[in-house]
Design a protein that fits this description.
Blueprint lengths: L3 H23 L8 H28 L2 H27 L7 H21 L7 H32 L1
Helix pairs in contact: 1-2, 1-5, 2-3, 2-5, 3-4, 3-5, 4-5
């Protein structure tokens, strides 16, 4: 299994998180970022960082790559489901979300189902690829939220 790709995801996630930290540090205290965006970014970014470093360690420790991937897919699916439930609960209405937010939320269900499929023993030949795709999905969501944070910062600087 190629763990270099997982390490690259961890590096990208760390870089994005650091850049958001810089934005938070230079922002004025009277104009904070929306809390829901910041929490969503951190949840996805930390998930990518943590879950991209775990496979190499766990496969070397237990030497059963398929079992490790099944367990990691299950844990990541449950984590993803928790993020989604929390986000939808705080939004209060699926109809009040933007089209992009609705699309991300609905497509997230498919990603969760795919991860749970691997956890249940389906697609085992693609377990590593599914897990990598799931991490890319979380990174993509983090990048979307990151772009929203940067746009908010740019619009606040322009006024």
């Amino acid at each position: 299994m190629n763990f270099e790709a997982f390490r690259t995801l961890a590096e990208v996630s760390t870089g994005l998180t650091g850049f958001v930290g810089v934005i938070l540090a230079i922002r004025s205290r009277t104009d904070p970022l929306p809390r829901l965006q910041l929490v969503g970014f951190l949840q996805n970014s930390v998930a990518v960082l943590l879950f991209s470093l775990l496979p190499e360690f766990l496969v070397e420790t237990f030497s059963h790559a398929i079992v490790v991937m099944r367990v990691l897919c299950c844990v990541l699916a449950l984590y993803h489901l928790g993020i989604m439930i929390n986000y939808v609960r705080k939004q209060r209405s699926l109809l009040a979300m933007s089209l992009v937010q609705k699309s991300i939320t609905l497509l997230s269900l498919l990603v969760i189902i795919l991860k749970l499929s691997v956890a249940l023993g389906f697609f085992l030949g693609y377990a590593g690829n599914v897990f990598y795709f799931a991490l890319l999905w979380h990174l993509g969501v983090a990048i979307y939220i990151f772009s929203q944070i940067v746009l908010v910062e740019a619009s606040n600087s322009a006024t």
